[in-house]
Amino acid sequence: MQRGLHPEPHGCRSPFLIRRLASEPATLVRIETAERLGIAPRRLDGWEPAETTTYEHDGDGRLVRSVTVREPEWSEQDRAWMAALAAHRSGRCPSCGGDAAVCCAPDGDGAFVVPPPTRCHVTTALAVAQAQYQDSPQPQALLWHVERR
């Protein structure tokens, strides 16, 4: 028997599953992967729905009918994970992708600093190579890859 899900008590910052998605990157990846595949998270974990077949026989023992009932793929918990994923995404900043409650807070002005950038040497090598071909016919059609020396 499956236990029902209950709302959290008032005063909590956000529901439990949303907090898990925000604080556990592996859980977020798992739920997003299930969503992309269009399957329930528990199916991603290897669960298979149970099937029960009942047989009806006539008075002579001949099979008259068989009925197979399959357990539904989407449990209450699976649906709760998908709802939590939607709520998690709605709470993200559309600009930086961070927690909107933090990065868009009115008292956040001046609360953040930007350290010097880090250079991606792969992108640098690619940009230098591509610049040499910018005047060639259809440079956007050139396919590139980068190899380490």
Describe this structure in words.
With 149 residues, the protein is an alpha+beta fold. It has a domain at 16-111. Helices cover 37% and strands 10% of the residues. The protein has helices at 16-23, 25-37, 41-44, 76-90, 100-103, 121-131, and strands at 51-57, 63-70. The protein has a two-stranded antiparallel ribbon. Strand 1 (51-57) and strand 2 form a beta hairpin. Helix 1 packs across helix 4 (76-90). The protein is elongated, with a radius of gyration of 27 Å. The protein starts with 15 loop residues before the first helix and ends in an 18-residue tail after the last helix.
Largest sheet: spatial strand order = 1-2
C-alpha-based Rg, rounded:
27 Å
Number of strands: 2
Give the distance, in angstroms, between the N- and C-terminal Cα atoms: 60 Å
Return the average pLDDT rounded to an integer. Answer: 91
Query: Which residues form runs of ≥5 with pLDDT under 50?
Result: none
- Counted by DSSP, the helix tally is 6
Helix fraction by DSSP (H/I, runs of at least 4): 25-40%
